[in-house]
Amino acid sequence: MPQNQTPTKPTPSQLLRECNDWNEFHPIGTRVEYYPVLGRDQFTICRTDGLAYILGDHSAVIRLRGRAGCFALANLKAIAEEHAL
Q1: Cβ atoms of residues 52 and 19 within 8 Å
Q2: For 39-80, how does the pLDDT look when each residue is reduced to its tens digit (9 = 90+)?
Q3: Which residues form the domain of 70?
């Protein structure tokens, strides 16, 4: 991205759609790969601990079991249970 451009902020309707899509296809307790830094290969396997929601009108997030805070859906990848460890 050129230096003089800032990333486009998602609209509230885009965030709501992202949360609704996640909640429709991934029940509470879904196993996920959590990537603390996007673009890197390191991840931790966790389970979700609630429904996805919009945080502060800027991010689609979810809680993870045993972890404090919330985590961006963009940093998660659902794991199919038949492939889970």
Answers
A1: yes
A2: 899 999 999 999 999 999 899 999 999 999 999 999 999 998
A3: 12-83
